[in-house]
Amino acid sequence: MYILYIDEAGCPGSLPGPTSDVQPIFCIAGLILPQNELPNVTAEFLDLKRRFNPSYASTLSHDLEIMLYEIKGSNLRSDIKNGTRNIRRRAVGILDKTINIIENYNGKLIARTYIKEPGGSFSGNAVYTSAIQTLCENFQNFLAANNTTGIVVADSRKKNQNNKVSFSIFTKKFKMVGDEYPNILEMPVFGHSENNVGLQISDWIASAILFPSLAHVYCSGYVNNVHIHPQNQLIKDRFIEKIKALQYRYVNGGRYVGGISVSDGILRRRSSSYLFR
User: Fold this and answer.
1) Which of 20, 152, 178, 222 has the smallest count of CB within 10 Å of its CB?
2) 191: DSSP letter
3) Phi-psi category of 259—alpha, beta or left, where left has phi over 0 and alpha has psi -120 to 50?
4) Tens-place pLDDT, residues 104-135
5) Cβ pair 195, 47 in contact under 8 A
6) Residue 231: Cβ within 10 Å count
7) 173, exposed or middle or buried, with CB in 10 Å at 0-12, 13-18, 19+?
Protein backbone atom coordinates (compact mmCIF):
# COMPACT_ATOMS: atom_id res chain seq x y z
CA MET A 1 0.00 0.00 0.00
CA TYR A 2 1.15 3.53 -0.79
CA ILE A 3 0.25 7.03 0.37
CA LEU A 4 0.23 10.11 -1.86
CA TYR A 5 0.90 13.30 0.12
CA ILE A 6 -0.02 16.58 -1.59
CA ASP A 7 0.92 20.15 -0.71
CA GLU A 8 1.11 23.37 -2.68
CA ALA A 9 3.40 26.38 -3.02
CA GLY A 10 2.51 29.81 -4.28
CA CYS A 11 -0.89 31.50 -4.20
CA PRO A 12 -3.98 30.85 -6.34
CA GLY A 13 -4.35 34.50 -7.38
CA SER A 14 -3.48 35.99 -10.77
CA LEU A 15 -0.29 37.99 -11.37
CA PRO A 16 -1.38 41.60 -12.12
CA GLY A 17 1.86 42.52 -13.87
CA PRO A 18 5.56 41.68 -14.18
CA THR A 19 6.55 43.88 -11.22
CA SER A 20 3.72 42.85 -8.91
CA ASP A 21 4.94 41.00 -5.81
CA VAL A 22 2.26 38.33 -6.18
CA GLN A 23 3.86 34.89 -6.43
CA PRO A 24 4.35 34.06 -10.14
CA ILE A 25 4.24 30.29 -9.60
CA PHE A 26 1.52 27.94 -8.41
CA CYS A 27 2.82 24.44 -7.68
CA ILE A 28 0.94 21.37 -6.46
CA ALA A 29 3.41 18.63 -5.52
CA GLY A 30 2.81 15.00 -4.61
CA LEU A 31 5.07 12.62 -2.70
CA ILE A 32 4.38 8.89 -3.04
CA LEU A 33 5.64 6.80 -0.14
CA PRO A 34 5.23 3.10 0.70
CA GLN A 35 3.03 2.84 3.79
CA ASN A 36 5.18 0.14 5.38
CA GLU A 37 8.19 2.49 5.32
CA LEU A 38 6.36 5.31 7.09
CA PRO A 39 7.82 4.49 10.54
CA ASN A 40 11.36 4.62 9.11
CA VAL A 41 10.69 7.81 7.14
CA THR A 42 9.21 9.42 10.25
CA ALA A 43 12.10 8.41 12.49
CA GLU A 44 14.72 9.73 10.06
CA PHE A 45 12.80 12.93 9.40
CA LEU A 46 12.45 13.71 13.12
CA ASP A 47 16.13 12.96 13.65
CA LEU A 48 16.95 15.38 10.81
CA LYS A 49 14.91 18.12 12.50
CA ARG A 50 16.65 17.48 15.83
CA ARG A 51 20.14 17.58 14.29
CA PHE A 52 19.51 20.84 12.45
CA ASN A 53 17.73 22.49 15.38
CA PRO A 54 19.80 21.37 18.39
CA SER A 55 19.11 24.37 20.63
CA TYR A 56 15.36 23.96 20.25
CA ALA A 57 15.52 20.15 20.53
CA SER A 58 17.38 20.43 23.85
CA THR A 59 14.39 22.24 25.41
CA LEU A 60 11.85 19.52 24.64
CA SER A 61 10.50 17.18 27.30
CA HIS A 62 9.91 14.40 24.76
CA ASP A 63 11.76 13.56 21.53
CA LEU A 64 8.55 13.41 19.48
CA GLU A 65 7.71 17.03 20.27
CA ILE A 66 10.20 18.09 17.58
CA MET A 67 7.43 17.18 15.10
CA LEU A 68 5.47 20.25 16.23
CA TYR A 69 8.42 22.51 15.37
CA GLU A 70 7.35 23.08 11.81
CA ILE A 71 9.82 24.59 9.35
CA LYS A 72 7.99 25.89 6.31
CA GLY A 73 9.47 25.35 2.88
CA SER A 74 9.09 29.07 2.17
CA ASN A 75 11.34 29.77 5.17
CA LEU A 76 14.01 27.41 3.84
CA ARG A 77 13.78 29.16 0.48
CA SER A 78 14.17 32.53 2.18
CA ASP A 79 17.13 31.28 4.22
CA ILE A 80 18.94 30.24 1.04
CA LYS A 81 18.12 33.53 -0.69
CA ASN A 82 18.71 35.99 2.14
CA GLY A 83 20.47 34.23 5.01
CA THR A 84 24.06 34.33 6.14
CA ARG A 85 26.49 31.68 4.92
CA ASN A 86 25.76 29.42 7.90
CA ILE A 87 22.01 29.86 7.55
CA ARG A 88 22.21 28.99 3.85
CA ARG A 89 24.31 25.91 4.59
CA ARG A 90 21.75 24.76 7.18
CA ALA A 91 18.85 25.13 4.74
CA VAL A 92 20.72 23.35 1.92
CA GLY A 93 21.73 20.58 4.33
CA ILE A 94 18.14 20.05 5.44
CA LEU A 95 16.98 19.71 1.84
CA ASP A 96 19.88 17.41 0.91
CA LYS A 97 19.04 15.05 3.78
CA THR A 98 15.34 15.16 2.96
CA ILE A 99 15.95 14.07 -0.61
CA ASN A 100 18.14 11.27 0.74
CA ILE A 101 15.21 10.06 2.84
CA ILE A 102 12.94 9.97 -0.22
CA GLU A 103 15.60 8.08 -2.18
CA ASN A 104 16.34 5.60 0.62
CA TYR A 105 12.70 4.60 1.06
CA ASN A 106 11.70 4.40 -2.60
CA GLY A 107 9.62 7.56 -2.69
CA LYS A 108 8.47 9.09 -5.95
CA LEU A 109 7.47 12.62 -6.96
CA ILE A 110 4.71 13.94 -9.17
CA ALA A 111 3.63 17.57 -9.56
CA ARG A 112 1.51 19.97 -11.57
CA THR A 113 3.11 23.39 -11.82
CA TYR A 114 1.85 26.61 -13.36
CA ILE A 115 3.71 29.71 -14.54
CA LYS A 116 1.34 32.68 -14.37
CA GLU A 117 1.05 35.12 -17.25
CA PRO A 118 1.77 38.69 -16.07
CA GLY A 119 -1.46 40.61 -16.51
CA GLY A 120 -3.34 37.46 -17.46
CA SER A 121 -6.18 35.63 -15.75
CA PHE A 122 -5.54 32.71 -13.40
CA SER A 123 -8.23 30.75 -11.57
CA GLY A 124 -6.19 29.08 -8.90
CA ASN A 125 -9.01 27.20 -7.17
CA ALA A 126 -10.15 25.62 -10.43
CA VAL A 127 -6.54 24.85 -11.31
CA TYR A 128 -5.99 23.21 -7.92
CA THR A 129 -9.01 20.91 -8.35
CA SER A 130 -7.93 19.94 -11.86
CA ALA A 131 -4.38 19.32 -10.66
CA ILE A 132 -5.56 17.00 -7.88
CA GLN A 133 -7.51 14.98 -10.45
CA THR A 134 -4.39 14.67 -12.60
CA LEU A 135 -2.21 13.68 -9.64
CA CYS A 136 -4.79 11.04 -8.69
CA GLU A 137 -4.67 9.76 -12.28
CA ASN A 138 -0.87 9.52 -12.03
CA PHE A 139 -1.15 7.82 -8.64
CA GLN A 140 -3.75 5.38 -9.98
CA ASN A 141 -1.36 4.37 -12.76
CA PHE A 142 1.45 3.90 -10.22
CA LEU A 143 -0.74 1.72 -8.00
CA ALA A 144 -2.00 -0.40 -10.89
CA ALA A 145 1.54 -0.88 -12.20
CA ASN A 146 2.59 -2.09 -8.75
CA ASN A 147 -0.57 -4.19 -8.20
CA THR A 148 -1.42 -2.43 -4.96
CA THR A 149 -3.73 0.16 -3.42
CA GLY A 150 -3.33 3.54 -1.80
CA ILE A 151 -4.84 6.65 -0.24
CA VAL A 152 -4.38 10.38 -0.80
CA VAL A 153 -3.58 12.83 2.01
CA ALA A 154 -3.66 16.51 1.06
CA ASP A 155 -2.76 19.52 3.13
CA SER A 156 -5.96 20.93 4.55
CA ARG A 157 -7.25 24.25 3.24
CA LYS A 158 -10.63 25.89 3.88
CA LYS A 159 -13.56 23.51 4.37
CA ASN A 160 -15.39 24.56 1.23
CA GLN A 161 -12.18 24.16 -0.80
CA ASN A 162 -11.59 20.69 0.64
CA ASN A 163 -15.19 19.72 -0.12
CA LYS A 164 -14.94 20.76 -3.77
CA VAL A 165 -11.73 18.80 -4.28
CA SER A 166 -13.07 15.71 -2.55
CA PHE A 167 -16.32 15.82 -4.51
CA SER A 168 -14.43 16.14 -7.79
CA ILE A 169 -12.70 12.84 -7.01
CA PHE A 170 -16.00 11.34 -5.82
CA THR A 171 -17.54 12.02 -9.24
CA LYS A 172 -14.62 10.26 -10.91
CA LYS A 173 -14.85 7.17 -8.69
CA PHE A 174 -18.60 6.67 -8.75
CA LYS A 175 -19.68 7.73 -12.22
CA MET A 176 -21.99 5.36 -14.10
CA VAL A 177 -19.41 4.24 -16.67
CA GLY A 178 -16.86 3.07 -14.10
CA ASP A 179 -14.32 4.04 -11.46
CA GLU A 180 -11.39 6.04 -12.85
CA TYR A 181 -9.31 5.43 -9.71
CA PRO A 182 -10.10 1.82 -8.66
CA ASN A 183 -6.83 1.37 -6.75
CA ILE A 184 -7.32 4.52 -4.67
CA LEU A 185 -9.34 3.33 -1.69
CA GLU A 186 -11.16 6.49 -0.64
CA MET A 187 -11.69 10.17 -1.31
CA PRO A 188 -8.71 12.38 -0.44
CA VAL A 189 -8.39 13.06 3.26
CA PHE A 190 -7.06 16.39 4.52
CA GLY A 191 -4.33 16.57 7.14
CA HIS A 192 -2.53 19.21 9.16
CA SER A 193 1.14 19.40 8.31
CA GLU A 194 2.36 19.97 11.87
CA ASN A 195 1.36 16.35 12.60
CA ASN A 196 2.19 14.78 9.26
CA VAL A 197 5.70 14.01 8.05
CA GLY A 198 4.64 13.34 4.46
CA LEU A 199 2.98 16.75 4.17
CA GLN A 200 6.00 18.54 5.64
CA ILE A 201 8.30 16.86 3.12
CA SER A 202 5.89 17.69 0.27
CA ASP A 203 5.88 21.32 1.38
CA TRP A 204 9.69 21.45 1.34
CA ILE A 205 9.82 19.95 -2.16
CA ALA A 206 7.16 22.34 -3.49
CA SER A 207 8.18 25.55 -1.75
CA ALA A 208 11.93 25.27 -1.24
CA ILE A 209 12.97 23.44 -4.42
CA LEU A 210 10.36 23.48 -7.20
CA PHE A 211 9.10 27.04 -6.69
CA PRO A 212 12.52 28.78 -6.91
CA SER A 213 13.72 26.45 -9.67
CA LEU A 214 10.65 27.19 -11.78
CA ALA A 215 10.99 30.91 -11.09
CA HIS A 216 14.58 30.87 -12.30
CA VAL A 217 13.91 28.91 -15.48
CA TYR A 218 10.54 30.28 -16.62
CA CYS A 219 10.20 33.75 -15.05
CA SER A 220 13.69 35.26 -15.32
CA GLY A 221 13.59 38.11 -17.82
CA TYR A 222 9.78 38.23 -17.82
CA VAL A 223 8.95 38.87 -14.15
CA ASN A 224 10.83 41.31 -11.96
CA ASN A 225 9.67 41.04 -8.36
CA VAL A 226 10.82 39.79 -4.95
CA HIS A 227 10.44 36.15 -6.01
CA ILE A 228 13.09 36.41 -8.73
CA HIS A 229 16.45 36.13 -7.02
CA PRO A 230 19.99 35.07 -8.03
CA GLN A 231 19.97 32.29 -5.43
CA ASN A 232 17.12 30.59 -7.28
CA GLN A 233 19.74 29.32 -9.71
CA LEU A 234 21.76 27.88 -6.81
CA ILE A 235 18.70 25.93 -5.68
CA LYS A 236 17.97 24.70 -9.19
CA ASP A 237 21.58 23.68 -9.87
CA ARG A 238 21.87 21.92 -6.52
CA PHE A 239 18.67 19.89 -6.52
CA ILE A 240 16.92 19.63 -9.87
CA GLU A 241 18.80 16.57 -11.17
CA LYS A 242 17.87 14.69 -8.00
CA ILE A 243 14.26 15.76 -8.42
CA LYS A 244 14.35 14.57 -12.03
CA ALA A 245 15.52 11.12 -10.93
CA LEU A 246 12.72 10.84 -8.36
CA GLN A 247 9.88 11.48 -10.81
CA TYR A 248 7.24 8.86 -11.49
CA ARG A 249 6.62 9.00 -15.24
CA TYR A 250 4.84 6.56 -17.52
CA VAL A 251 3.70 6.24 -21.13
CA ASN A 252 0.08 7.04 -21.96
CA GLY A 253 -1.14 7.34 -25.53
CA GLY A 254 2.38 7.15 -26.87
CA ARG A 255 3.81 9.98 -24.75
CA TYR A 256 5.29 10.34 -21.30
CA VAL A 257 3.05 11.80 -18.60
CA GLY A 258 3.30 12.21 -14.84
CA GLY A 259 6.44 13.45 -13.18
CA ILE A 260 6.88 17.21 -12.84
CA SER A 261 4.67 18.81 -15.48
CA VAL A 262 4.77 22.52 -16.32
CA SER A 263 2.05 24.74 -17.78
CA ASP A 264 3.84 27.85 -19.00
CA GLY A 265 1.60 30.93 -19.11
CA ILE A 266 4.38 33.19 -20.40
CA LEU A 267 5.75 31.59 -23.57
CA ARG A 268 3.30 28.63 -23.76
CA ARG A 269 5.68 26.41 -25.72
CA ARG A 270 8.12 25.59 -22.89
CA SER A 271 7.52 22.17 -21.39
CA SER A 272 8.97 20.61 -18.24
CA SER A 273 12.08 19.63 -20.23
CA TYR A 274 13.31 23.23 -19.83
CA LEU A 275 13.36 22.74 -16.07
CA PHE A 276 15.84 19.88 -16.32
CA ARG A 277 18.34 21.44 -18.75
Assistant:
1) 178
2) E
3) left
4) 999 999 999 999 999 999 998 899 999 999 99
5) no
6) 17
7) middle
